Inverse folding.
């Protein structure tokens, strides 16, 4: 007999101390502002978050505290609340039907895969979480109700990051990963086996421990208001935050609240440095200023004024910090590729050498990610767009008629208040009288992945000084980005006598990556041919989807030396480039100059960019932060 | 036999030539539905879809609450949709219908509403009351949800699918409806890797993964063509010709299912599994759990009450390949 994983007892969760602690602390003190659990798949993230629901102490009114799950497919009206359909139709009464935010009041709002949640929902939730009040202004209703809840989210960072504002709303963040020792894994398998065999008996076995947790939680909650923080420790908290350059003051506040919860959880009435050190990493993990949320936590802070702190407390705290260190650091921007690839001396690369892919790095955003007003088809997550087909998430409704995509709920809501009167005017077998003016259509939204087209110079000159290795690193980084945004990718390589479409447009970013690794360099530079192939690919892409927004990255040092005709290859390439740019106004071009810095630079790639009407970047520029502004200059994108 | 894909005759499972790994992975999922599915990777025309559709005939019979669109289990209160549960709690004797578990196909063009369920239009207009029109997740509850070309599925549909595959529950919060019903299904997907990979998160939801290729021996290929021709000439006669073998397989599966709850694994086996996972660098613990379940199902299939090392070997080939730890393309970057 299988049982829903919601039934897995919290007490039966093995290991994952940080996650367990963070969840318990927010339950002790909801003012902490919730937890986001980040980690690989299959690490009991969701199981733990759901299991917390069974432990929550009763709400203010003495009833069971709500544990509300927000599904990814929820529509806006259901989250913030809307007109009660049935009441409106049956009695012509305008009554408010509370949404998920109202239901979560006094309890937990749980969002699985929170990083995949649509932005429009995020905004509504953020607003309420921030103010503790949910304001509804829609369908002729204007009202506000209290919505204080603990936000618990789980996410797998592989699938993309959360917006920093949203991330900051979570008081604590913890990172989880699988157990590294076989014995723990065996114990986990046994637990799971037992649970799967008879979930009910399993729950029974842990009932006593569950009860202990529940009582301890209730006790801690009662004690919380009395827990005080010594003044010198407040300064200590401030120092921790300062040292780690966290933005804003939320971290300070969260640490203070969490430390008090930690003290209460341990039955103490006064916060110690130990409490602070135990919770600080969880409050800092996602707030470090230097962008990358997986950054290693702070170096251990200096000892607080040492009057009455036992020495060993200190050590414990440091131990915690180290524990964090083990996990993180993996997403840190690695130094440029130098290490691994055994390279021949740079002077004269042999023909058709395959250079290894350098270490990838996070790329800055390549374009505006706002919603545009145009109707498009497609699927992906780089830019969101209103959807022209019936595909996509039903976001909200509109009285404007464009398609036959009826938003029934909204239509009925529009018609509802008039039912009584209309019923009197004209009898009908239908329960609802709907007039054309009531009709609402669905507004759907979906993210459109763009086409990312790489035109890569594979000529011999790219082999010099590991240029190809760095170029590959740049492409790889863009591919990682493309993966998260669900872009389609294509690749043209020009080397020797001609250009080749090595990868027609595909959703398989992995295939592109594999090809990239095996991409050899050698031979001459048929730049014109490369640009022509690119043009053909763009034509094809436009035929497939007239609204496609391709992003073309030309990675070359610009040293064209093999032409299509008889003229100087370089001049020819510039002519072809100009034509390409004009022919495809919908595409955005970026020339990435792979010429090594420091040498006497010919800046041929810069001329190419000029002819193409393209942005010009060095490979090093790809990793900088200011690309966003560059993208914004391009209103056309 | 219920076959929602139409009245078309179904090619018998046992008549599929070769593709042993594919067939076995499907059978294992019948023996233990909590294995949570198979991802079948391979080129076109390798009997992927045929095998999945044929599987319907081999599925066990289940008890459902008659007329319940959510396939509520009349014997387990927790596996009931709200309506059935309310009736159960009120002391009503729920009408039981015994029928085969189903294979439900999710077309890649399916909209989100269709998948998770939506407001029942007719009911709303006629009665002025809201009622849910169940989606594919409701139909697939306690059966198999089959997604052909799963890698081409729309992103937001994948999100929804992940959501309910993870919880075994489908939560609807849309269009004025707030509703939750059980949605435990075995996810079977096929894909051609040339057309794009799956997101790791979704990949991980498939218990097992098999690669299928075209058959390499000319004799086998000839046999495929012959059988196909025979099937197309007279499907009923073809089915009759294979009936005996189909029945034998059905009996074998039934025996394995009966034995399955008794299968035990010693600590040394579990340790072996854990070490394999660690050596392969998988994410999280799902690989361990699935490997153990697979090994147990294999033991039951082979008529044993204890898991042996060979079971683990075989389980590893099915449960590990798609779970190696890597960021989206770490294997390539190295």
């Amino acid at each position: 007999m299988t049982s829903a994983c919601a039934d897995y007892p919290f007490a039966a969760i093995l290991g994952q101390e940080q996650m367990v602690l963070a969840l318990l602390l927010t339950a002790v003190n909801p003012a902490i502002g919730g937890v986001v659990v980040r980690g690989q798949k299959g690490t009991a993230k969701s199981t733990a978050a759901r299991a917390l629901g069974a432990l929550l102490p009763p709400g203010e009114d003495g009833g069971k505290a709500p544990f509300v799950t927000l599904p990814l497919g929820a529509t806006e009206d259901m989250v913030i609340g809307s007109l009660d359909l049935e009441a409106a139709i049956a009695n012509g009464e305008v009554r408010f039907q509370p949404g998920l935010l109202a239901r979560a009041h006094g309890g937990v709002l749980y969002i699985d895969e929170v990083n995949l949640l649509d932005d429009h929902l995020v905004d509504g939730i953020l607003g309420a979480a921030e103010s503790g009040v949910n304001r509804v202004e829609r369908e002729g209703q204007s009202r506000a109700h209290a919505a204080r809840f603990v936000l618990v989210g789980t996410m797998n960072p592989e699938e993309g990051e959360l917006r920093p504002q949203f991330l900051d709303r979570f008081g604590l963040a913890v990172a989880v990963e699988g157990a590294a020792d076989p014995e723990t894994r065996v114990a986990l398998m046994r637990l799971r086996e037992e649970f799967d065999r008879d979930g009910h008996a399993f729950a029974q076995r842990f009932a006593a421990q569950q009860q202990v947790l529940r009582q301890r939680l209730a006790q801690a909650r009662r004690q919380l208001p009395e827990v005080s923080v010594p003044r010198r420790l407040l300064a200590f908290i401030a120092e921790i935050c300062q040292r780690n350059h966290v933005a804003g003051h939320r971290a300070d506040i969260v640490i203070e609240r969490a430390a008090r919860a930690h003290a209460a959880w341990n039955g103490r009435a006064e916060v110690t440095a130990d409490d602070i050190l135990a919770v600080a990493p969880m409050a800092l993990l996602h707030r470090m200023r230097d962008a990358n949320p997986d950054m290693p936590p702070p170096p251990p802070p200096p000892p607080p004024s040492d009057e009455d702190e036992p020495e060993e407390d200190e050590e414990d705290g440091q131990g915690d910090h180290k524990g964090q260190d083990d996990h993180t650091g993996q997403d840190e921007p690695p130094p440029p590729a130098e290490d691994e690839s055994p390279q021949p001396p740079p002077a004269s690369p042999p023909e058709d050498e395959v250079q290894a892919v350098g270490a990838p790095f996070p790329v800055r955003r390549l374009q505006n990610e706002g919603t545009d007003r145009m109707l498009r088809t497609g699927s992906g997550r780089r830019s969101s767009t209103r959807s022209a087909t019936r595909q996509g998430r039903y976001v909200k409704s509109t009285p404007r008629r464009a398609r036959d995509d009826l938003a029934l709920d909204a239509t009925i809501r529009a018609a509802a208040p008039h039912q009584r009167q209309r019923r009197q005017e004209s009898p009908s077998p239908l329960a609802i009288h709907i007039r054309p003016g009531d009709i609402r259509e669905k507004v759907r939204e979906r993210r459109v992945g763009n086409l990312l087209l790489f035109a890569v110079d594979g000529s011999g000159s790219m082999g010099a000084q590991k240029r190809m290795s760095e170029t590959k690193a740049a492409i790889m980084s863009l591919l990682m980005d493309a993966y998260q945004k669900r872009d389609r990718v294509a690749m043209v390589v020009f080397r020797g006598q001609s250009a080749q479409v090595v990868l027609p447009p595909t959703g398989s970013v992995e295939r592109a990556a594999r090809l990239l690794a095996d991409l050899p360099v050698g031979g001459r530079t048929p730049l014109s041919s490369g640009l022509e192939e690119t043009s053909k690919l763009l034509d094809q892409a436009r035929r497939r989807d007239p609204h496609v927004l391709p992003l073309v990255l030309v990675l070359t040092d610009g040293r064209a030396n093999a032409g299509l005709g008889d003229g100087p290859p370089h001049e020819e390439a510039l002519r072809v480039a100009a034509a390409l740019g004009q022919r495809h106004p919908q595409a955005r071009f970026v020339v990435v100059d792979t010429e090594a810095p420091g040498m006497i630079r010919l800046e041929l790639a810069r001329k190419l960019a000029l002819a193409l009407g393209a942005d010009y970047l060095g490979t090093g520029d790809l990793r900088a932060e200011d690309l966003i502004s560059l993208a914004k200059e391009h209103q056309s994108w | 036999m219920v076959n929602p894909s139409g009245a078309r005759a179904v090619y018998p499972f046992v008549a599929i030539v070769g593709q042993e790994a594919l067939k076995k992975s499907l059978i294992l999922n019948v023996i233990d539905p909590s294995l949570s599915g198979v991802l079948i990777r391979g080129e076109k025309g390798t009997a992927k879809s045929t095998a999945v559709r044929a599987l319907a005939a081999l599925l066990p019979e289940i008890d459902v609450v008659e007329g319940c669109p959510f396939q509520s289990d009349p014997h387990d209160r927790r596996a009931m949709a709200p309506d059935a549960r309310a009736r159960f709690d009120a002391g009503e004797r729920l009408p039981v219908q015994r029928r085969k578990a189903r294979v439900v196909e999710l077309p890649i063009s399916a909209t989100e509403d269709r998948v998770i369920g939506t407001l029942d239009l007719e009911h709303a207009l006629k009665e002025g009351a809201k009622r849910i029109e169940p989606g594919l997740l409701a139909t697939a509850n306690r059966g198999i949800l089959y997604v052909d070309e799963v890698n081409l599925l729309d992103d937001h549909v994948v999100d929804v699918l992940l959501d309910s595959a993870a919880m075994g529950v489908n939560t609807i919060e849309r269009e004025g409806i707030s509703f939750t019903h059980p949605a435990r299904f075995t996810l079977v997907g096929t894909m051609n890797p040339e057309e794009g990979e799956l997101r790791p998160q979704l990949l991980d939801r498939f218990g097992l993964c098999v690669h299928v290729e075209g058959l390499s021996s000319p004799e086998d290929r000839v046999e495929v063509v012959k059988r196909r021709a025979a099937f197309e000439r007279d499907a009923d006669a073809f089915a009759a010709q294979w009936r005996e073998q189909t029945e034998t397989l059905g009996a074998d599966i039934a025996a394995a299912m009966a034995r399955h709850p008794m299968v035990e694994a010693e600590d040394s086996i579990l340790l072996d599994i854990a070490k394999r996972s660690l050596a392969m660098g998988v994410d999280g613990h799902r690989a361990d759990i699935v490997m153990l379940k697979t090994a147990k199902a294999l033991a039951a299939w082979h008529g044993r009450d204890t898991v042996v090392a060979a079971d683990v070997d075989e389980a590893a080939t099915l449960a590990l390949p798609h779970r190696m730890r890597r960021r989206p393309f770490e294997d390539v970057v190295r």
